[in-house]
Amino acid sequence: MLDLSDVQSMNFTPAEQAIFSLRPGDVLVTEGSGSLTSVGASSVWRGELEGPVCFQNTLLRLRPRQGVDGRYLEWWARSAFGSGVFASIATGANIFHLSAERVRALPFLLPPLDEQRRISDFLDAETARIDRLVGVQQQVSARLLERRIAGVIAEVTGARHPDQRATALAWSSTLPTHWSEVRLGLVARMGSGHTPSRSHPEWWIDCTIPWITTGEVSQVRDDRREEIIETREKISKIGLENSSAELCPSGTVVLCRTASAGYSAVMGQDMATSQDFATWICGPRLDPHYLLWCLRAMRQDLLGRLAMGSTHKTIYVPDLQMLRIPLPDLEEQRRIVEEIRDQNLRIDRLADAIKRQIALLAERRQALITDAITGQLDVTTARPTHTDL
Question: Is 307:299 a contact under the CB 8 Å cutoff?
Answer without folding.
Answer: no
